[in-house]
Amino acid sequence: MILFVTANKLTLSANAILLQYTAPVWACIMAWFYLKEKPHWEHWAALVMTGFGMFLFFGNGLAGGSLAGDCLALISGVFFAANSVALRGFKEGNPLDVMICAHIMCAAYSVPFFFMYPPVLNTGNVLAILFMGIFQIGAASALFVYGVRRIRAVQAMLTAAIEPVLNPVWVLLVMGEKPAPSVIAGGAVIIAAVVFSSLVGKRRESVLENISHGSTEDTEKN
To answer: Could you tell me the CA-to-CA distances from 84 to 72, 98, 156, 177 in Å, in that order?
Structure first.
């Protein structure tokens, strides 16, 4: 989170978001090695589709930016993936404790910057901070923890990729700005990738459950 916020100050937002959302690739690799969750073919296909969709989505906004900011955004994607893999590793316990501890550490690390760069605490800023702390970060983190206990780390990252897709939707609803055709196309590809991988994965689970159930019945009959 700290790396992503810093990257947004040093490079263009489109660059920061696109580079952070390389996270599904890192999550796929980390989960394979550390959790022994070997990705299935639909995950690889969804990764390719998501990458293409992100390029369409942010292509018009990409520019040179800052090398330092781009590097920090890329590293934030690695840590974002590591976060999901770590939470997935605690699926049998209580990963919410891990998430809460991480947020406490993040807040403690950020305290000195509050005094180094004092914020302007007007009504609008305070309301924005409360909204982001309670809903955009707090509630979202709790929901993410709930989900990552039930799906693979790579699928959690693929699903999280829908987040930037919704940005132009809120802008359209609140400010009336219509997104470019490439943005709509990129968002459609990303959503299709997530839905595709989810449905294929669910289908595989159902087939395996039926096979397992059938084997159990045969054993009981014998």
So the answer is: 19, 11, 7, 33
Tokens 């952070």: give the residue: 20
**C-alpha dist (Å) from residue 69 to 11, 83, 175:** 5, 21, 28
The model's pLDDT over 169-222, given as tens digits with 9 standing for 90+, comes to 777 777 777 777 887 888 888 889 888 888 888 888 787 677 766 655 555 555
What pLDDT was estimated at residue 216? 56
- pLDDT tens-digit series, residues 108-125: 998 998 888 888 888 988
Q: What is the CA radius of gyration of the chain?
A: 20
Q: How far apart are CA 21 and CA 25, in angstroms?
A: 9
Question: In sequence order, what DSSP letters do the residues of 5-40 get, joined into one string?
Answer: HHHHHHS-HHHHHHHHTTHHHHHHHHIIIII--PPP
How far is residue 100's CA from residue 149's CA, in Å, rounded to a whole number? Answer: 16
Whole-model pTM: value is: 0.78
Encoding tokens for residue 203?
């289908």
In this structure, are residues 4 and 20 in contact, taking their beta carbons and an 8 Å threshold? yes
Task: Note the residue count of the chain.
Answer: 222
Residue 132 is given by DSSP the state I
Report which of 136, 135, 95 is spatially closest to residue 5, judged by C-alpha positions: 136
Domain locations along the chain: 2-221
